[in-house]
């Protein structure tokens, strides 16, 4: 840091806006396993997991995950070995995760939407020893993928277990025939119910790696961020102390648990709060709304696209959101227009947040009692305030700090920042110089400490020499009453070098045309910013965590 930083960013102006509880030091448990043991000792019969009509108490989860740990150890899994988990939001994921940690392993969460080649890269790069997945994925492609990898132990589960409702909207598959003794994978549910004892010499601490979380690979080959148990517990504890939820809160797992947001802000925070975590396999708007009505959750966090889908569902009412004390958005940009439309229609104010896999989910958020300001010049909604132990700096291309209000790259230092990438010293040195995370995001901070994210550095559009940030154009499009989703990319242009193209999906029943949308933007943006091309699609491509994939839209242009 420069001397100037000591009087600017390191002075942490945002501390004045935090409450006493939000500023207070935290003393988290060593790991989530230790947090689990604490709850089991105090309230063992409290419901931990709710999965449709199924319920598992903290005691049951502890015993079932003990058995998974004992089985893995008996099969030869050593302390520090990697265990890949490729599952949706079901109890199986939680049992596999806790069981792997109790066995002393490092967990590698894998997106269930990954294809064989993507999974194969993770298994080989992480030198994964054990794979835990659904039985259907194992039978269809993962057995073959695992055979070409270091995997030597496989457990498979059927997500119809631990419930009996079999909601056809998400659980529309049939149970596979029971595996016989010659099968090369063990049944996860049977293993969990077998009563094995967890090994006693595998205890992990805050500095041990908990997760190798592979990035989405938007620029090059995916890299594994090494989230430590200390990283996870710090952010989980900050969530517990900062959200002002009631005792034994009910969390709804809107974000997938394999994603760092779902892992930390839902599972981690819920366990640390001795709460109940409601699981619904995967996102389906009608199923989610029914779960809200059935379980009355106090908190959830998800991408803006999920809230757009919930708001557009024909059966949605204000009553579905009546139980919530707080709703947060993360993982995808949150347009200001959506915040106001959602509040007007359903009541809750959606609180913005900002983080990356490399900082173990949030490094800035909008605390209870405050609302994020909107920058009057760009119309950008602030993503929040950093935490008390976090320092966020904004620097120019030469690495020099810029004054408050000026744009530059966002850098983050704090207890949630990972030590680096798995076995990638060059990438670690480039992204984490002196332990500080270079995010690749462009943003600015105002004098009060509110952080604003403008866009990804690599997504900037150069139109005739003018910088165009897609987020600014998207935020304008979201104010149009017909627009449900919007994504803006740069496309080649013989005269301007690049020009702006917008991809749109429409709200149910809405009608408009590309020309009208382009004109709407032209009236509200500088001439070089408005989209010269607009294409309307039924849906925009997204990651499993709900983030719109601009790279796929750029590929669509190139392929076309």
Write the layout of secondary structure elements.
Elements: H1 3-6, H2 20-23, H3 32-42, E1 47-51, E2 54-57, H4 58-74, E3 82-86, H5 91-102, E4 106-109, H6 116-125, E5 128-134, H7 135-147, E6 153-157, E7 186-187, H8 188-192, E8 209-214, E9 224-228, H9 229-242, E10 250-252, H10 260-272, E11 276-279, H11 285-295, E12 299-302, H12 304-312, E13 326-329, H13 336-346, E14 350-356, E15 361-365, E16 385-386, E17 391-395, E18 408-413, H14 425-431, E19 437-445, E20 451-456, E21 461-463, E22 466-468, H15 470-477, E23 483-493, E24 497-506, H16 514-522, E25 533-536, H17 550-559
Parallel strand pairs: 1-11, 3-4, 3-5, 5-6, 6-7, 10-11, 10-12, 12-13, 13-14, 24-25
Antiparallel strand pairs: 1-2, 8-9, 14-15, 15-16, 17-18, 18-19, 19-20, 21-22, 23-24
Protein name: Acyl-CoA synthetase
GO molecular function: acid-thiol ligase activity
Keywords: Ligase
Name the average pLDDT.
Answer: 93
Shape: globular
Could you give a short account of the major beta sheet? 9 strands, mixed
CATH topology of the domain at 32-224: Rossmann fold
Proportion of beta-strand residues: 15-25%
Assigned CATH architecture of the domain at 32-224: 3-Layer(aba) Sandwich
Assembly category: single chain
User: Gap between N and C termini, in Å?
Assistant: 46 Å
Q: What is the CA-atom radius of gyration, in angstroms?
A: 23 Å
Secondary-structure content class: alpha/beta
Helical content (DSSP H or I, runs of 4+) = 25-40%
Task: Say how many strands there are.
Answer: 25
- Spatial order of the strands in the main sheet? 2-1-11-10-12-13-14-15-16
Q: What is the tally of helical segments?
A: 17
Name of the CATH class of the domain at 32-224: Alpha Beta
Low-confidence stretches: 1-5
Domain AMP-dependent synthetase/ligase: 37-422
InterPro entries: AMP-bd_C, AMP-bd_C_sf, AMP-binding_CS, AMP-dep_synth/lig_dom, ANL_N_sf, ATP-dep_AMP-bd_enzyme
GO molecular function: acid-thiol ligase activity
Protein name: Acyl-CoA synthetase
């Amino acid at each position: 840091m420069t001397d100037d930083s000591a009087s600017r960013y390191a002075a942490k102006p945002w501390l004045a806006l935090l409450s006493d509880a939000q500023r207070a030091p935290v003393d988290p448990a060593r790991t989530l396993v230790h947090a689990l043991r604490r709850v089991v000792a105090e309230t063992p019969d409290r419901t931990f997991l709710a999965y449709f009509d199924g319920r598992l108490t903290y005691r049951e989860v502890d015993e079932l995950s003990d058995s998974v740990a004992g089985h893995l150890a008996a099969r030869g899994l050593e302390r520090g070995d990697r265990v890949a988990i490729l599952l949706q939001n079901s109890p199986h994921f939680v049992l596999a995760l806790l069981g792997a940690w109790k066995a002393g392993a490092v967990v590698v969460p894998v997106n269930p939407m990954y294809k064989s080649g993507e999974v194969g890269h993770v298994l080989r790069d992480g030198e994964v020893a054990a794979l835990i997945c659904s039985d259907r994925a194992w039978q269809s492609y993962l057995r073959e993928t695992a055979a070409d990898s270091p995997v030597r132990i496989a457990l498979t589960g059927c997500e119809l277990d631990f419930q009996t409702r079999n909601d056809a909207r998400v659980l529309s598959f049939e149970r596979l025939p029971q595996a016989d003794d010659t099968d090369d994978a063990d049944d996860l549910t049977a293993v969990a119910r077998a009563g094995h004892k967890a090994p006693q010499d595998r205890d992990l601490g805050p500095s041990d790696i908990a997760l190798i979380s592979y990035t989405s690979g938007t620029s090059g080959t995916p890299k594994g961020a090494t989230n430590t148990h200390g990283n996870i517990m710090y952010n989980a504890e900050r969530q517990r102390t900062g959200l002002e939820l009631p005792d034994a809160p009910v969390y709804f797992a809107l974000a997938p648990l394999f994603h760092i947001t779902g892992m930390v802000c839902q599972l981690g925070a819920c366990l640390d709060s001795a709460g109940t975590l409601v699981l619904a396999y995967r996102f389906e708007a009608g199923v989610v709304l029914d779960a809200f009505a059935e379980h009355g959750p106090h908190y959830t966090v998800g991408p803006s696209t999920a809230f757009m889908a919930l708001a557009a569902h024909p059966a949605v009412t204000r009553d579905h959101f009546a139980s919530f004390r707080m709703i947060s958005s993360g993982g995808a940009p949150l347009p200001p227009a959506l915040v106001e439309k959602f509040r007007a229609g359903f009541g809750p104010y959606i609180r913005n947040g900002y983080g990356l896999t490399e900082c173990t989910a949030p490094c800035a958020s909008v605390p209870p009692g405050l609302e994020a300001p909107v920058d009057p010049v760009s119309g950008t909604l602030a993503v929040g305030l950093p935490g008390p132990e976090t320092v966020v700096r904004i620097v120019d291309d030469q690495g020099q700090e810029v004054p408050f209000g000026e744009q530059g790259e966002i850098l983050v230092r704090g207890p949630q920042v990972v030590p680096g990438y798995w076995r990638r010293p060059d990438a670690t040195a480039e992204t984490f110089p002196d332990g500080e995370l270079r995010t690749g995001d462009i943003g600015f901070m105002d004098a009060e400490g509110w952080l604003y994210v403008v866009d990804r550095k690599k997504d900037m559009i150069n139109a005739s020499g003018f910088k165009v940030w897609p987020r600014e154009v998207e935020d304008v499009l979201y104010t149009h009453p017909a627009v449900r989703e919007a994504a803006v990319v740069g496309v080649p242009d013989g005269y301007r070098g690049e020009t702006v193209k917008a991809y749109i999906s429409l709200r149910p029943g809405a009608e408009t045309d590309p020309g009208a949308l382009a004109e709407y933007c032209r009236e509200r943006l500088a001439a070089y910013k408005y989209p010269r091309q607009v294409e309307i699609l039924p849906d925009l491509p997204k990651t499993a965590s709900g983030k719109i994939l601009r790279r796929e839209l750029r590929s669509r242009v190139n392929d076309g």
